TrEMBL record:
It is a multi-pass membrane protein. Belongs to the SEDS family. FtsW subfamily. GO terms for molecular function: lipid-linked peptidoglycan transporter activity; peptidoglycan glycosyltransferase activity. One of its GO terms (biological process) is cell wall organization. Pathway: Cell wall biogenesis; peptidoglycan biosynthesis. Keywords: Cell cycle, Cell division, Cell inner membrane, Cell membrane, Cell shape, Cell wall biogenesis/degradation, Glycosyltransferase, Membrane, Peptidoglycan synthesis, Transferase, Transmembrane, Transmembrane helix. The chain crosses the membrane at residues 52-73, 94-112, 118-138, 184-202, 208-225, 232-250, 310-335, 347-370, 390-409. This is Probable peptidoglycan glycosyltransferase FtsW.
Amino acid sequence: MSAAANAVTGWQARLRARVAGWLPGGESAVLERDWVGATAGQPTRWVGFDAALLWVVVGLLSLGLVMVYSASIQLPDNPRFANYEPTHFFSRQILAISMAGILGGVTLTIPMRTWERVAPWLFVAALILLVLVLVPYIGKVVNKSRRWIPLGIINFQPSELAKLAIAMYAANYMVRKMDVKESFTRAVLPMAIALLFIGLLLLAEPDMGAFIVIAMIAMGILFLGGVNGRMFLIIIAVLVGSFVLMISFSEVRRERILAYLNPWDELYAQGKGYQLTHSLIAFGRGEIFGQGLGSSVEKLHYLPEAHTDFLLAVIGEELGLVGVVAVILAFFWMVRRIFMIGRQAIALDRVFAGLTAQGIGVWIGGQAFINMGVNLGVLPTKGLTLPLMSYGGSAIVLSVIALAVVLRVDIENRQLMRGAKA
């Protein structure tokens, strides 16, 4: 065997050991057998994708569907929803999950190199939609916020597309700026300006929660992409200062912070602290094993937005500590697995794919953490849904599409490991 052949064989062995080491034992063994077949010149068989990740996603979607039905079945008793059927939100959630499944399947067929090519244009499209949603007669106003564009069977929320767009754009941006990532003006400042523009559009809706998540995604990818630590700390300081100023100059946001610090104060218990106090009451009633599915009292018009922002509180009341811990562990495992897939891609020199996957992990994990923190009183009240579970068509569809992108990254990792072209 020639020296060149020996070098290639050695490189393959080192790469196989590095990536296969991150896979569970059974999958690692399958990957080993398929790699041997490929290097021996024998036909390889498709090793598939991370079925466990898929099943966790399906499990969260299914539990979310059941809990949305439980939390919303009584809403027609409210004059605001008097014209709705008891199954209205349940039916629309099924429609959203069905659409998400179809679009997620289509997403699985799109190579990551295609996403890398269109990432800047996807970002531009998201910006255009964020502008359009602010235009009267195009954007729909709900609860004094203009965040949706009516599309007949579904109200589309551009901020959800912006989360996926910023994950892909930031990953693409870091690949292009890898050689100058130590430079503030050439690597960090352009992304900061883009975030500032998005922030102005989102705060005009207003949707500060979405802006926080988008900023987390962009900053997470910059950090994972290797931006200089000192510059990263400066950016964080600027963002924190911006949020403090936004809170200081907004009486509504300032009252939310004060209510969060003491929700039981008589000044806030029936106002800005109302949701938090009833959320805590729901968790308290649930105790260890819950009151039983469908037996929540707080959802009976005491806890506002029980089927969206405060779905976890209903889970806590009906399924107890056991149900809440199960949801938290499912999200923890899913986000950890997403980051592992991203690491595998980066180890295979697929930086865009790896950073995109990790950006999606920051999105899902960060938003879930904020929602859970708000429900449990750890964080100030903020209008963010629980990914994959809360009611919301746009959120469900875009979250599933994003996770389909992660599965596509995993598929291409496995293809590359067995010697095929990704």
